[in-house]
Design a protein that fits this description.
Number of helices: 15
Radius of gyration: 23 Å
Oligomer: single chain
Structural class: mainly alpha
Largest sheet: none
Order of helices and strands: HHHHHHHHHHHHHHH
Strand content: under 5%
Length: 324
């Protein structure tokens, strides 16, 4: 049933008006000048995404939603959650880049060596779908051919496309995902998936979708810790036992990221978790009441040894965040 649309009746507000709204919703603000600085830095609308988990009716978004928050919620809690999410995006973005490069390299090496006589196998109708070939110029190559490296290639060589190892260097994760889906042979798909230890094609495709969506969330500054994936992650090697409620959550996505990164480098996986645990411990040192929310939304369980370092990490936090 289609909901009846209504006229939009909200208008821009000043920082002082925004503070009054926050106070009216139950958020404790100890320092209004500091709160005003946060609103000027982050923005009222963006900060609202980090107030949402504190609402009494969370996670409801329909007519039952109330903007009033749980008793004891402070502005400091909300801002701390914002900075934790920012830290998490920055951390994951670096390691997702490693996974993206590894995916691209696997595609290029495995399929280019299999089809060594055809440097343009990615537009060969015997290898990929006709629809992919028809869409490829508009969906990808018109942008790719503007790259200086590809421009130089076309100035020197004839042909509509540069070879796979040049072209695919500039394909996005989304382009790679569509290419994977468009391979006509399951054997070709499995060449890529088994490189990462996952023989099930549909499961590996769900991993690629997850990596792309989290990468995009990181790149565009979207809320990460409470994100919902567009489709469920399939149970497989990365997640052999997968509770249904985590299949479209950041909790599930983090398990996939951990698995895929471990196939690239065990050392980098350890580095990623060290950084995540440090950022989480910093958050708890500032706002210990957020532990239950973070554990439920992300599945991040802080090791005991990190808890012991909380006082040290709090000092680090105070240096980094002293002006927020």
């Amino acid at each position: 049933m289609t909901r009846k649309r209504i006229p939009y009746n909200k208008y821009a507000t000043t920082y002082d008006e925004q503070i009054r709204i926050l106070l009216g919703r139950g958020i404790a603000i100890a320092d209004e000048n500091k709160a005003r600085e946060c609103l000027a830095d982050i923005g009222y609308y963006r900060l609202g995404f980090y107030i949402f988990p504190f609402e009494l009716t969370y996670p409801l978004l329909d007519h039952r939603r109330s903007h009033h928050v749980q008793q004891g919620t402070t502005m400091e809690d909300v801002v701390s959650l914002y900075y934790f999410d920012l830290d998490l995006r920055n951390i994951l973005n670096r390691y997702l880049s490693r996974i993206e490069v590894a995916l691209r390299t696997t595609f290029v090496y495995e399929l280019s060596t299999k089809y060594a006589s055809d440097p343009y196998w990615f537009v060969n109708p015997l290898i990929v779908s006709a629809q992919f070939i028809a869409d490829f110029p508009g969906a990808a190559y018109n942008a790719i051919k503007k790259r200086p490296t590809i421009k130089r290639h076309h100035l020197k060589y004839v042909g509509q496309y540069a070879p796979a190892w040049k072209t695919m260097e500039y394909m996005t994760l989304g382009n790679l995902e569509v290419l994977y889906d468009s391979l006509l042979s399951d054997k070709d798909k499995r060449i890529v998936s088994t490189h990462f230890g996952e023989p099930a094609i549909a499961t590996f495709k769900s991993y690629m979708t997850t990596i792309r969506e989290v990468r995009n969330a990181c790149a565009h500054g979207n809320v990460l810790f409470g994100m919902t994936l567009t489709s469920g992650i399939r149970a497989g090697v990365a997640c052999p036992s997968f509770p249904a409620h985590t299949q479209q959550t950041f909790h599930g996505a983090l398990r996939v990221i951990d698995y895929m990164l471990s196939k690239v480098s065990a050392n980098r996986t350890n580095d990623m978790w060290d950084e995540i645990y440090k950022a989480t411990a910093v958050l708890y040192a500032k706002s210990p009441t957020l532990r239950t929310l973070i554990e439920a939304q992300t599945g991040i369980i802080l090791p005991q040894k990190s808890d012991k370092n909380a006082s040290v990490l709090k000092k680090i936090y105070n240096v980094i965040r002293k002006n927020w």
